[in-house]
Amino acid sequence: MLALAFAIAGCSKKEEKAAPSVATPPEVQVTRPAARTITRVVGQPSFVQSYERTSIYAKLPSYIEKWHVDIGDVVKKGDVLADLFMPELVEEWDSRKATVVLDTEKVRVAEKDVEVADAQVKAAAAKLDEAKAMLAKFEAEVIRWDVQVKRIQGEVDRQVIAPQILLESQNQFRSAVASRDAAKATIQTASADLSSSDASLARAKVGVAAAKADLMVAKSEAKRLEALVGYLKLTAPFDGIIVVRNANTMDFVLPQTGDPSAGSRSPDLSPSTQAAPVYVVDRTDVVRIFVDVPERDANFVHVGSKARVKLWAYKDEWLPASVTRLSWALNVKSRTMRAEIDIPNPGTKILPGMYAYGRIVIERPGVMSIPSSALVSAGGKTFVWLYDGKRAHRTEVQTGVEDGRWTEVTNLRADTSSDDPFAEEWRPIDGTEQVLTGSSLPILEEGGEVKVTEASPKNGAPKEEEKGKDAPTAASQPADAGPLSTSALPR
After folding, report:
1. 481 vs 279, which has greater pLDDT?
2. 305: how many CB neighbours lie within 10 A of its CB?
3. Res 479: pLDDT
4. I need a surface site. Which of 52, 221, 364, 446 has the fewest CB within 10 A?
5. What is the pLDDT of residues 331-354, one digit of tens each?
6. What dihedral do alpha carbons 113, 116, 118, 123 form, nearest 10°?
7. Distance CA 287, CA 459 (A)
8. What pLDDT score was predicted for residue 105?
9. Phi and psi, residue 179, nearest 5°
């Protein structure tokens, strides 16, 4: 009994000796924020979509006279897919082409009329000039015989010349006056003829302009009808593959509803289920993969970001790629930004609609980061414990990207004890801060003393010889090692 009592007393002493003293400060390690490259991967399930997909509808209400291609056929840009039948349109086009020929001849005739009218104007102008010359001649004759009559009158008065000679000269004078008056009348007639010819020339020119306008209208109408007749042949918009055919011989197709006979059997009905395309053509030399990037990662994804795509139905391996384009706006419902990845598809082995999984690599080089184990969350906020050389102080921080081991720390809440109302609430991390890490962080108290020990690799803090160097990040891991982002969904 005594031996048992001594044994129990000895065990109690050993247990008391092993229990830690409440006065002993918690053991922690100290690290400093350092510039590192943080790499994370955003992965999302997706599907394959052709680079372009076009539904072919009829422009005009018509019948399908003949269809040339079926589903699975490879077509080139401009290949005829089907011929439509609308004879009244073809006849109207032929009539309009004949009208163009007729109006062209009318223009030619009108131009000839202009040439005739111009010649008539020139002839009338010549006649006017001739009449004016004759007037000058007769006016000279009038003056001559007037002088002659006056001279002979004087000779007759002196009885030197016989009166018969005076009478003859007076007759010549009267004849010259009559000829002068006739020339004046001829000038008036020639002037009137010239004015009439000018009016005819102007009218002929107007006729030419009107004929040309009619010709232009006829040509325009002919081109319009030619364009409509061109719609009677449905052609491929690009090099691709026929994925849907609703065309059947003598189907009646409408612009608004497409092929009514397709009904619910067509896989490409419009959202209203009222319109079925005659054909659907896919461009598959390049395919697209969509990855919806979460809001917190949207600012770090850009055109050219590295990516990888896996298509299990094609090849169960990761295909290297890069982000081709971004939507540059978040979806207000899903709070994601769409990124598109283009994949070359030689031989069209990758089929539209295949299930895919896309990953985008987000690299943040040279960001100030600390071990993720040094962060403490409380009340929706993130904190770190700072060391002032003896005691621990909890301070709120703002974080950026993280890769599971390291977390970017951007700002530290500043000391707001100042009375300055304009004092900054946050200050950037500069790398001088002493951040506490270790398993004792949950039991630390504000202003409590701590005991600093050497950092161990388990807690994520760098060793002494690693300080100032970049610790391994997700960038060193293979891209197919699995999603590193919490936003990435499992396979």
Report:
1. 279
2. 20
3. 36
4. 446
5. 899 899 999 999 999 888 899 889
6. -160
7. 45
8. 93
9. -65, -35
Pairing type for strands 279-294 and 240-245 reads antiparallel
Q: Is the pLDDT of residue 179 over 80?
A: yes
Question: Could you identify the residue written with the tokens 């139905």?
Answer: 313
Structure tokens at 5: 């009592």
Q: How far apart are CA 473 and CA 408, in angstroms?
A: 12
Instruction: Return the DSSP state at 464.
Output: G
Q: Would you say 437 and 28 are in contact if contact means Cβ atoms under 8 Å apart?
A: yes
pLDDT, averaged across the chain: 81
Return the closest-CA partner of residue 360 out of 321, 398, 389.
321
Written as six digits, the tokens of 53 are 């997909």
Write the CB contacts of 483 (distance below 8 Å, at least 6 apart in sequence). 41, 43, 359, 489, 490
Torsional sign, CA 262, 263, 265, 268: positive
pLDDT in tens, 376-435: 998 889 999 999 888 899 999 998 888 888 999 988 987 655 555 555 688 888 889 999
Give the Cα separation of 102 and 95 in Å (integer). 11
Helix (H, G, I), strand (E, B) or coil at 287: strand
**Mean pLDDT (whole number) for 215-226:** 93
Count each helix (H run) and each strand (E run) in the chain, helices first. 4, 20
Three-state DSSP state, 429: coil
Q: What is the pLDDT of residue 196?
A: 86
**In the chain, what are the domains?**
24-37+367-476 (2.40.420.20), 42-49+284-364 (2.40.30.170), 58-84+238-277 (2.40.50), 89-230 (1.10.287.1700)
Which sign, positive or negative, has the C-alpha torsion 346, 347, 350, 352?
positive
The structure tokens listed for 452 are: 């600093």
SS3 18: helix
Q: Pairing relation of β-strands 451-452 and 27-31?
A: parallel
Contact 218, 100 (CB under 8 A): yes
Amino acid identity of 362?
A: I
Provide CB contacts within 8 A for 286, sequence distance 6+: 51, 342, 343, 344, 345
- Does pTM surpass 0.85? no
Residue 440, φ and ψ in degrees, nearest 5: -90, 0
Q: Is the pLDDT of residue 20 over 80?
A: no
